[in-house]
Amino acid sequence: MASNPPSSCCATGFKHEGTPVGELKTIDGVNTYIGTPKGNQKTDTAVLFLSDIFGLFNNNKLLVDEFANNGYLTVLPDLFRGGQLTTDDMESGRVNIGEWLKDYQPPNVDPIVAQTIKYMRETLGVKKIAAVGYCFGARYVTRFLKGGQINVGYHAHPTGTTHEDLAAIEGPLSISAAEIDQAFSPQLRHESEITLAKTGQAWQINLFSGVKHGFAVRADLSDPNQKWAKEQAFCQAIAWFNYHL
């Protein structure tokens, strides 16, 4: 594995305040949150947002809105068809993530990602797709960054990625990594660097000190270092997409 499967570190973090302003639609039976830019829209490009284990969670919707604020139509499908973990689950500690994860493997998730890409290209008319993957979603950015499905990818603190999928990418990939992360440990990060260097694709790994797994989406915003790292990880994704699209 290039990063370990989701575990207890994926079910920690902080809820962020704010009211999402996007639109919730049902696309081929899948609840999907869409952020639409105002004004300076990049009309032929869009972002596919593949979430952490909390799915259509307020934090994720607010991030979708931020991508839209930067000019990118952004689409967040419910990868779990309503079976995502909740913040109540997180706070109670009653969920066995290993057991939960059995229902959300590639045979279950790949079709949702594929149909969302089809919708973006055929219905929305998107020519180039950038994909972001936080924690759980990172694996699926990697799996679809080939064959012209996704054009450019970005991960934050990935889980579940394999060296086989990393080795097979056919587009640029950027990763934001946390210093303290059992899922994407220093050893796995260095192994991933070796794998990515052999792909012939552009790649980037930025390491943020003093933060833990999940910082790019579930940071404690009252902590200046966590807030700064979260904001810089987002800027990393935007800069990567602006350059490669």
From TrEMBL:
**Originating organism:** Penicillium malachiteum
Q: Which Pfam families match?
A: DLH
Q: What is this protein called?
A: Dienelactone hydrolase
Q: Which UniProt keywords apply?
A: Hydrolase
Query: What are the recorded GO MF terms, alphabetically?
Result: hydrolase activity
Domain (Dienelactone hydrolase): give its ranges.
31-244
What PANTHER family does the record point to?
A: DIENELACTONE HYDROLASE, PROTEIN AIM2
Q: Which InterPro entries does this one have?
A: AB_hydrolase_fold, Dienelactn_hydro
According to its UniProt entry, one GO biological process term is: monocarboxylic acid biosynthetic process
